[in-house]
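FORM 7B - TANDEM STRUCTURE REPORT

SECTION 1: FIRST PROTEIN
SEQUENCE AND TOKENS:
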Amino acid sequence: MSKFKRIPIDSLTVGMVLGDDVINSNGLILIPRKTAIQQKHVFRLKLYDILSVVVDLDTVMEEVVEKFPEEEAYTPNVSNQQNFSEFRTVYHKKEEAIKSQLHAISNGEPINIDDLLTISQSLLDGLSTKGELFNYLYHLKANDDYTYTHSINVSLLCNIFGTWLKLPPAQVKDLTSAGLLHDIGKVKIDQTILNKPGKLTPEEFDLIKTHSRLGYDAIKDQPISDAIKAGVLMHHEKMDGSGYPLGLHEADIHEFAKIISIVDIYDAMTSNRTYHKKFSPFKVIQVFERESFGLLDTAYLFVFLENIAHNYLGKDVKLSNGKIGKIVFIHNTAPSRPIVEVGEEMIDLMTASSLTIDEII
């Protein structure tokens, strides 16, 4: 007789078999029991903010509950190695800065937006082009202080996203600030629960889902814009009303929250975690294309995906067949399926549907 166990999504790996149906907040079955997990299922679960699933223990290897081994040191293939090295140095210094700021604010200290923004701005100022940010973030190593590095990443990506949307400078500033603050509520949650590799109790799941409300409560009386506060409170709301904490529908969700929701998911999927390997940006773009209808704002999402894909033009990639090539063309109608030059061969992933981009190198 099979035995079953509930495990967090970050411990879920391809090949495991579900021991129970995965159901969203509206009572709809997202993935039926006995499904063998594929990467697309992991993406879908993250889009719906599903925190855990029940799996058949006969399909779970022991290493699921162990940390991934340390990555081998390597030098990423970025266009300017010195710039990347300098960016990485500043980035690691800012990890402590954001940690200190978020704890202080959560304890009631007043927010100085200009001081807060120096965390993001110092990193943005070090970029030769803003587009290089995506490659830099992709090649940063895993860090146990994910709440804080994720806050930095989301703020940087929100800043660039805001410029793509042609928002006024004042709004870009507020959006960047909202990115830094969006997960401040997690400071109030026991970090051992947030980073727990084993089974989470139902009470622990419910506690994690309170972070957006806790974050809003921490800043609601601060002298900052209502847009920032709304971004913090609503960034887990979904267009179809299946999100939290308020269960809002599209028309009632603030624009900042719609933007942060997209960036939040993108960074979570493309970042290394202690218990979760990052996904290729093009695989994430593909799941956004296929799985996000009714969950994310499609107008914002289209702008985001198209611009991300174009930032990888000219970059070397590894295909799912093991071959190395260079991205030479992005299809605007299907940004996840570019044309890749491999030697003297041009491979159009629009037609070579069995191939995917596994890695940016």
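SECTION 2: SECOND PROTEIN
SEQUENCE AND TOKENS:
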Amino acid sequence: MSDNDGADDMIMLMCASCGIAEVDEVKLKTCADCDLVKYCSDACQKDHKSQHKRACKKRAAELRDELLFKQPDSSHLGDCPICCLPMPLDLRKATFKLCCSKMMCKGCSHGNLMRELEERREPKCPFCRKPSVPPTDEESGKWIMKRIEANDPAAMTQWGRDQYAKEIIVAAELGYAEAHYRLSIFYHDVEKDGGKTKHHLEEAAIGGHPSARYTLGYHEGRNRRHDRAVKHLITAATQGDDDSINELMDEFRRGFVSKDDLAAALRAHQAAVDATKSPQREAAEELERWIAARRIKSTADMLRKSTIEKITSSRCASCGIAEVEADDITLKECATCDLVRYCSDACQKNHWPQHEEACKKRSTELRDELLFKQPESSHHGDCPICCLHMPLDVDKSTIMTCCSKIVCNGCAYADALRQVEGMLLHTCPFCREPTSDTNEEYTKEMMKRVEANDPVALCQEGGVQEEKGNYLRAFEYFTKAAELGDVEAHFELSHMYRDGHDVEKDEGKEMYHLELAAIGGHPGARYNLGIGEWNNGKTERAVKHWIIAATQGDDDSINELMAVFREEDGMVSKDDLAAALRAHQAAVDSAKSPQREAAETASKSAEEYLRNAAKSLQREAAEESQRRMKMKSV
């Protein structure tokens, strides 16, 4: 304990006004507004008020803020008393039972109702087991008044929420958060009392009311107290409040919320929303949607349309002949689209003038369906050793020339460490062949894989030739690898057609190879496609590309999305950005492991050692040079 702590403890044991110490007959009372000082009597407190007033107000404000900005354990609605899951914030997804003043989720209410219908039982409250529907309005009034007489704050709030009766004031005095929120609306809209409005909003927020906290954050932001606004909004968003997460997005756009804080709030918001979900609640929502969707087309109309389409597709689009197995008449689909079928090449040729426009339109649609389909993983796939997603950063993986397998640095480092500790022969972690020790052996193994037409080796050799400036040879290797399906080779070919290295510049071929690379899961290619589409004014397609690449964990794409959201109003919606941020973080996290982190740490340590060694050699060389200069001068 420090001397200052001891001095503070001594002060707290003495009256702040007269200095009398706390003994058997003298009891000191802490200041009611703060916890800084104690007094032996009301007279001493009154005498000391002028000296203590400023410090007391400051400390009282600090204590109030500590209480106000503390993250509530749950929302003011708490958990459903039946399923014990957090209650949804949307009150349309909850039911208030007059018999016992209990709020419960519609999932439990729906589940209970279905069970009673199946068993043909009398409908009862799922909680108190009383008849759930009162026979008359008068009876329902009696039920709720009975709960009010029992000082039930929920019943008081339910009764007084429309007319702001005295019962709602009593409910607020009993600490009911919803009552405080209703009173804040009353003082804001009717009485026009800003002080009382703020007081009740704060009490409701402390009680876990996310709407009250959102309102506080909204007004703090409009009053330019953005740090307090952001705190309120983050707290409410963490409870699952949609308005707060949307307002946070606006604050981020204005520059008052960092990217990390926004990402953390989005994850917490999604976790809070997911915590309120259950199969029973989804079934209840599905039932309500089914009841509300009675204006859709009848099943007969849909069936008739489907039958017509089926009949049309079973006939030649040119001559109309039907497909008959007994007569050996087989129709073939148009090779470019899936709209029509033909019995012969002659029919297809005759029908082409009529079909050309629709065919081209449909083929473009099919290409876009393929192009904008979310890949299951990046073009790197998974590490063949640990089966985790490969990191997008190529510096965090290693190619084994013996088998052309690319493994993550975590597995390569762990295997190398095992071999060093066990004094074993250095072998490939995948095929167990001895690893190459010299550049000659490395090149020999690589060329062996090239001769076997290994697409990965062909692409690697193309990169080697490109670094040497032998672009024509590199083009040949990349082309062969691309023909064998190597995605990276398509990406490299797009660069060659863009830059015109020993090949004629061709924007069409550049886009063609970029699209094939993107379809194969290459996030860098998809990012480039997005840039190209944006520059051509096709902003919607650009955003689609960046969202897909960001979902794969591409940093450039998520940064581009955030820049567009911040600078181009309406180009990227809040929901799309939030989903992209969550998916991006999930992709990044899926590529992490303790072994990979250990390998990265070891790599950084080795780099630091080499830098220090280089600096030491430079310093020694400089000192030696100075020593020689001095000897010459002597």
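SECTION 3: OBSERVATIONS ON SECOND PROTEIN
The first helix runs from residue 3 to 12.
The chain has four domains: 3-68, 91-288, 305-371, 395-584.

SECTION 4: SIGNATURE
Preparer initials: ____
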